[in-house]
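Standup, Tuesday
Yesterday: got the pipeline producing structure tokens again.
Today: sanity-check two examples.
Blockers: none.

Example 1:
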Amino acid sequence: MVKLLEQRNDTTAVFSIIIPRIKSTKSLVPAWKRNILRMLIVLSSTGLAIIFRNSFALVAAFTGAIGSSLLAYILPCLFHLKLCHRDLPWLVCFKDTVIIMLGILCSIVSLYSVIIQLVKNTSV
């Protein structure tokens, strides 16, 4: 595969070998549905900012507890296992699995902490 890539000079041909062609979401989901989803996300964020105006930092921490651990620990290891699991030694698979479990555990603990602080600080 490496020799094949070294022999080709056309970058589009190289990228078509490395990255398979994937259908875009534009052809799968109509534009009006995507726009409604965007509008709902913005309106829900606005609603949370209004409801929790005194403790919006905790709402941001809630989002960070989910997103950060997912993007930093869980998804990279899941992709690594999904794409390369047949070529990896068992120790690397074990390491990825441990990192995934620790990422899920840390996400749960941080979510619990943020929810407890939200309940304590919110007076509705």
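Example 2:
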Amino acid sequence: LYCKACYGNIFMPQDFSSGNYGGIVTPEDIMRREEEERKEREREERRKLERRCPGCDKKAYPDDSVKLSDTFYHKACLKCTECGRSPDENTPMMLGPKNEDNIFGQEDLEPFCKFCFAKKFKISALNIAETVTTIQEGEGMGL
């Protein structure tokens, strides 16, 4: 028989790692991280210029794509990140930050339906409906 503290120490070992910290951070580590971030930003810019879908990273052609902000998505790839709902005439999609702490981070945007956007960012869905304009199927995708 063991007391609760001894039982936990013997049979439930704990990992005392501190996340991804691997020891002393050197100037080379900092430079490497900055270089990786710069390359990722360049990839994102190239994706936008080449009209690549963020969902599948394939080229999005005008007849099969939807423009959301400055980003083109395939119609099949555009789904709400919270509930998985696809856009329709009653449910416009909008981009919101992936991380709630980094609201103004441009590169960290994910698609949300208006209901999940309102729930996550604590805004009224009616206010969203007033500010979002939807593009009908026949309008605006031509080059």
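Quick observation on example 2: The beta strands are 65-68, 71-74, 93-97, 109-113. The longest strand covers residues 93-97.
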